[in-house]
Design brief:
Strands 1-2-3-7-6-5-4 form a seven-stranded antiparallel β-sheet, covered by helices on one side. With 181 residues, it is of the alpha+beta class. Strand 2 and strand 3 form a beta hairpin. The protein has four helices and seven strands, in the order αβαββααββββ. It has one domain.
Length: 181
């Protein structure tokens, strides 16, 4: 009887110590702000984040990629505040061969409020943030070969090239605060 009581007390103490260790461990990178811990990157510069291409897709299109979506490139950039607690600016770029269902959703004005731009009209701004787009992202001069959809606020911009069923998209904005703890 004494052995079982001693064992129960020992197990309870170990569980308590484990719980305290978990709750009191030092905080690491905040996954919501995606701040980049690179001292060579000045706070005002957009730095690539560590998000996976699938996560960038999910955040861009509010859905999971399907087996028919083939992500070719994806990049998310962020600028964190000096204390690293807030995202001041963010921007993402993606290139993929989309599932036809995604293309249909993007073309539906009720889904993302995207409007079709007239042929030959380049979206404005290109791109919104002053840093250059990745090398694989089309330039403004390439716009005539694309069907271009853009949000009225000039945020989300989608470029679709039918000849090789390739979709490019980008969006950017001001940051958001870290979650209240």
């Amino acid at each position: 009887m004494r052995k079982s009581t001693a064992l129960a007390v020992t197990v309870a103490l170990l569980i308590g110590v484990l719980i305290c260790a978990i709750l009191l461990r030092p905080k690491r990178e905040n996954p919501v702000t995606n701040r980049v811990e690179d001292s060579a990157t000045p706070p005002s510069a957009l730095a690539p984040s560590t998000w996976s291409p699938e996560e960038i897709y999910r955040r861009a299109f509010w859905r999971q990629p399907t087996a028919r979506d083939r992500i070719i490139h994806a990049e998310r950039r962020v600028t964190a505040s000096a204390d690293g607690e807030q995202v001041e600016r963010w921007q993402w770029f993606i290139q993929l061969q989309p599932d036809p269902a995604l293309l249909e959703t993007l073309r539906n004005p009720e889904s993302f409020s995207l409007l079709v731009l007239a042929p030959g009209v380049a979206p404005r701004p290109w791109p919104l943030i002053a840093t250059p787009a990745p090398a694989w992202f089309p330039s403004a001069s390439a716009s005539p070969e694309f069907e271009i959809l853009q949000a009225p606020s000039a945020g989300l911009t989608v470029l679709y090239r039918a000849r090789d069923t390739t979709l490019f998209a980008t969006d950017s904005g001001s940051g958001f605060a870290a979650p209240v703890r």
